[in-house]
Amino acid sequence: MSVPYATLEAMIVAQRGCEMPRCVPIKDIKNTTEFARIVEESPEPVIVTRNGREAFAAMSIELLDSLRMERARAELYRLIDEAEEDSRAGRVVDARESNRRTRERYGL
To answer: What CA–CA distance (Å, rounded) separates 22 from 68?
Structure first.
């Protein structure tokens, strides 16, 4: 007995507490209005397939901004960790020395 995809998807969402990525055949993006609606409403990137294989992903601007923020936050945490390690290792100078080195380096 086959289970309709929508029902199967709902069962997985209920079990895992998350949504499955939405997949759309490339021929379906000819209807750009409908495709845009799907992308804008999706909480995850929409996977576009060609010949049954993943070709590319589309996502809402909100999701893109969220991913950019997440990446920036990860980079900030990495830099903070690096600075804390420098401090623990004694690779520090006081503000006056730092200003002196900067002026010397750039001829100020």
So the answer is: 21
Instruction: Give the pTM.
Output: 0.62
Q: 60 near 39, Cβ under 8 Å?
A: yes
Q: 3-state secondary structure string, the chain?
A: CCCCHHHHHHHHHHHHCCCCCEEEEHHHHHCHHHHHHHHHHCCCCEEEEECCEEEEEECCHHHHHHHHHHHHHHHHHHHHHHHHHHHHCCCCCCHHHHHHHHHHHHCC
Mind listing the pLDDT tens digit for each residue in 60-79? 999 999 999 999 999 999 99
The set of residues, in sequence order, having a beta carbon less than 8 Å from that of 38 and lying 6+ positions away, is 22, 24, 46
- Of the candidates 54, 60, 61, 62, which has an alpha carbon nearest to the alpha carbon of residue 24? 54
